[in-house]
Design a protein that fits this description.
The chain has a 22-stranded antiparallel β-barrel. A 5-stranded mixed beta sheet has the order 12-17-18-15-16. A hairpin with a 7-residue loop joins strand 13 and strand 14 (167-171). By secondary structure, it is mainly β. 5% of the residues lie in helices and 58% in strands. The protein has 2 domains: 1-104, Sandwich (Immunoglobulin-like); 231-724, TonB-dependent receptor, beta-barrel domain (Maltoporin, Chain A), CATH 2.40.170.
């Protein structure tokens, strides 16, 4: 009944739409030499976010009509360039001419949706945020989102093997289930926050947005440590591309995408098929040949939008995915001698489906309503020597939000969100042995205020009250967030503070005698500075942070029996502090350099109620698992005429890990650090045809991101790309 009412609101808003008196903006965009720039995006941003988005034509000109009267910031988005935004006070039926002269910039402007309740320019975001564009992905020939995230400061990406292996993300010392993943605004995490980045394709991605730090004030549950939002291609000039590539280890990949707009309609879509035999050599641990490391992926996505000028903006989109992979086990480092043979039986299959609808409707130039309705389904099958098993997550999410522009500088948003989710597993059963899915309802009430002063001071504050209910248990959690950014000429200062939560997952609920399990919690504060040099050609940044993690769920054994009377309880604690350093440089339009370094110190703290005692086998002061203290990355992209080349290097210090076969019960060991380089190049033979090649792990280094699971050795890939509408 609740979802039926949401659909009625969608229909009613479409019928009540109306047109208001409007103005027109036009102008021209030129490069540093005065030549016209085609394909630059002109984005008009008001108190309620982005209200118009156009691309320049071949002569660099643009025109934006049907613009309501108001005060706007007009921003130019073009890879490798920037321009100072223009603040314009536009009257009804006004006609204004605005010209932009671009300059070379190490960081380009972008429009992001993950730092606030509305769309904002990246330059206004006060959070520690990174945007990775489609141009970044193509220039570096990146296959998966996980590989792109390796370029983001202080995100520890850990893949347990080669292509398609389980891939975890540890944000700023947080756990692997502390990152909320959104695909076009639809939650993609499993029940309880888990997410495997191993098969998150980059084929149809327009940009990847990463917010480091808790964002439960915006998104509620699961945004306890970071948010990764995938925005797929849609709208703009009609365009499309397709690629086919292959290489050693029997690797093959086919992918294609298309997007565009015409009149009131916009669309986008993509498909991908990938397979790899994986590692087929001799297992270092046993001397056997590995034959169960293969990986297969099929993925498709699509969206369709309709927008009426100064009226409703409707978007319907979704995606489906299927992947299958063998699990040969930890056939690499064998510190305790527990791995005795390669597993030739274990295989996993995952099927995911997402469908969502979103309606933005401006009731006036100062009031806008947004309605979202999303459905997510994830089903998994696993076969091992113990037999088959299944698991899954189903979720329905409905959201209503109101945005109000109070005056030229001050705006607010508020709304409600209702989530119904279910977790199932072969191993979660009732007393009679029949399946007993875990169900949970979440109701979130949120509000946010925003203040902008002369494109220099940006302040955002908000909170969300999360009400979680399961059976007879009721939990309320209030999560606030505040962020501020101040720009003084070439210097930007920023700071933020907030909290986050992660409710228990299905197994944590099913296998306990504790009726009062609580969400795990985080408290975080950060602050930093960004300094621009040489007219934006060089940008250096530094951000320091401190995170405290409380109410962590752990098993209560003998050593902790005085802290709790239950089998599991929220009694553990940890903390992380760190420093993130970044450097972006574009000394010439053809050359770009990006480098980052992160120092992260994590510590396990005493459990609640006991002094100097940590959950076994850890001791107080031990580092958290798989969180290296030192990690860094550097990448270089060079373009000259028809030739483009890239090279990158990622490095990581040693990290504490567990015995690969039996986990923490088998003992703790340090996994060595490593440095791995990749390189590639492409040649554009015609405007629509490219040939490219890349070599991953150029030096063929033997290393492991997760102890016991050998990473990908040297791999060469060659491919061709056909594109239209460039």
């Amino acid at each position: 009944m609740r979802m039926y009412r949401l659909w009625r609101l969608l229909a009613a808003a479409l019928l009540l739409s109306r047109t208001v008196s409007a103005a027109t903006l036009n102008g021209r965009v030129t490069d540093p030499d005065g030549r016209p720039v085609a394909g630059a995006r002109i984005v008009v941003v008001g108190a309620l976010g982005a209200v118009a988005d156009r691309e320049t034509s071949a002569d660099g000109s643009f025109e934006i009509d049907a613009l309501p009267a108001g005060v706007y910031g007009i921003h130019v988005v073009k890879d490798g360039f920037t321009a100072d935004p223009i603040r314009a006070d536009v009257a009804a039926f006004d006609a204004r001419t605005l010209d932009f002269a671009l300059r070379v910039s190490a960081l380009a402007e972008s429009i992001v949706v993950s730092a606030s309740q509305i769309e904002l320019p990246l330059s206004r975001a006060a959070d520690a945020m990174t945007a990775i564009t489609a141009a970044d992905l193509e220039a570096r020939q990146i296959e998966t989102v996980a590989d792109a995230l390796r370029l983001v400061p202080d995100l520890a990406v850990t893949r347990s093997g080669g292509r398609g292996a389980i891939t975890s993300l540890f944000p700023r010392g947080g756990a692997s289930n502390y990152t909320l993943v959104l695909v076009d605004g639809i939650r993609a995490n499993a029940f309880g926050g888990g997410y495997d980045f191993g098969h998150l394709s980059a084929a149809d991605v327009d940009r990847v947005e990463v917010v480091r730090g808790p964002e439960s004030a915006l998104f509620g549950s699961d945004a306890i440590g970071a948010v990764v939002q995938i925005v797929t291609k849609r709208g703009g000039r009609p365009r499309g591309d397709a690629l086919i590539e292959g290489g050693n280890q029997g690797t093959e990949r086919l992918a294609g995408s298309a997007a565009g707009s015409r009149d009131a309609w916009s669309w986008g879509g993509g498909i991908e098929q990938r397979r790899s035999d994986g590692f087929t050599g001799v297992a270092p641990a046993t001397g056997e040949r590995v034959t169960n490391d293969d990986d297969h992926l099929r993925h498709a996505s699509g969206s369709l939008g309709w927008r009426r000028p100064n009226g409703p903006d409707l978007l319907i989109g979704g995606n489906v995915g299927h992947d299958e992979r063998g699990f040969p086990g930890p056939f690499g480092t064998n510190p305790a001698g527990n791995f005795t043979r390669v597993d030739r039986v274990s295989r996993g299959i995952n099927d995911s489906r997402q469908l969502g609808a979103r309606l933005n409707h401006p009731w006036s130039s100062r009031v806008r309503q947004r309605i979202d309705l999303n459905v997510f389904d994830l089903s998994s099958q696993f076969t091992s020597s113990f037999g088959p098993s299944t698991s899954g997550t189903r979720r329905v999410d409905g959201r209503v939000q109101e945005d109000v522009a109070v005056n030229r500088s001050f705006a607010a948003s508020g709304g409600v969100e209702a989530i119904s989710e279910r977790a199932s597993s072969t191993f979660i059963t009732g007393a009679d042995g029949t399946p007993a899915p875990i169900r949970r309802a979440v109701a979130g009430t949120f509000g946010e205020v925003r203040y902008v002063a002369s494109e220099r001071l940006f302040v955002t504050g908000g909170a969300r009250l999360e009400h979680l209910s399961r059976n007879r248990q009721r939990i309320n959690s209030l999560n606030p967030k505040a962020a501020v950014s101040f720009v003084a000429k070439a210097t930007r200062l920023h700071a933020s503070a907030g909290t986050g939560i992660r409710p228990p997952d299905g197994f944590e609920i099913a296998f306990t005698d504790n009726p009062n399990l609580k969400p795990e919690r985080s408290r975080s504060v950060d602050g930093g500075v960004e300094q621009r040099f040489a007219g934006d050609a060089l940008v250096a940044g530094a951000t320091a942070f401190f995170n405290r993690y409380d109410d962590l769920l752990v098993t209560v054994g003998r050593s902790l029996r005085d802290a709790s009377r239950y089998k599991t309880d929220n009694i553990s604690n940890a903390q992380a502090r760190g420093l993130e350093l970044t450097l972006d440089a574009r000394p010439r339009p053809r050359l770009s350099l990006r480098a980052s370094y992160a120092w992260v110190d994590t510590q396990i703290l005493s459990v609640d109620g006991l002094a100097a005692i940590a959950p076994p086998p850890f001791k107080v002061g031990d580092p958290l698992l798989r969180r290296p203290k030192h990690q860094g990355a550097i990448d270089l992209v060079y373009t000259h005429g028809r030739v483009s080349a890239f090279a990158d290097l990622t490095t990581r210090g040693r990290a504490l890990d567990v015995e690969p076969s039996f986990g923490a019960s088998g003992g703790l060991f340090f996994s060595p650090g490593y440095a791995v380089g990749n390189a590639g190049a492409s040649i554009r033979f015609t405007r629509n045809f490219d040939v490219y090649a890349r070599v991953l792990n150029v030096t063929d280094r033997a290393y492991e991101e997760a102890l016991g699971f050998p990473a990908l050795r040297r791999s060469a890939i060659v491919g061709v790309r056909v594109a239209a509408g460039r």
